[in-house]
Design goal:
By secondary structure, this protein is mainly α. The chain contains five helices and two strands, in the order E-E-H-H-H-H-H. The protein has one domain.
């Protein structure tokens, strides 16, 4: 993006999430990641649902962070779960 004489870029939603997770302590499992996202960072489930899985996959493959890889795994599981909502409650399964 360019304004006047300054040029700058704006991170995608997915990259911004990954940048934030990169700076945080590594989580051990999906349950810890879910608690980190929903409770500690207070991110709404609806906002997480807006993440693009293909973008997350690309970022996770190129980002040196366990948290980022776990975010991709969690969102991939969520995507599979949404197709079978009648088997449980809530958006996430851990």
């Amino acid at each position: 993006m360019e304004r006047a004489q300054y040029a700058f870029t704006i991170a995608s939603r997915e990259k911004a999430f990954c940048d934030q997770l990169y700076k945080m302590r590594p989580v051990s499992n999906y349950r810890e990641l879910q608690e980190l996202l929903l409770d500690d960072l207070r991110i709404e489930e609806q906002e997480l649902a807006k993440l693009n899985l293909q973008n997350l996959e690309y970022i996770a493959q190129h980002y040196p962070s366990r948290n980022v890889r776990k975010l991709y795994g969690l969102m991939r599981r969520r995507t599979q779960y949404v197709g079978n909502r009648d088997k449980g409650t809530g958006i996430f399964i851990v």
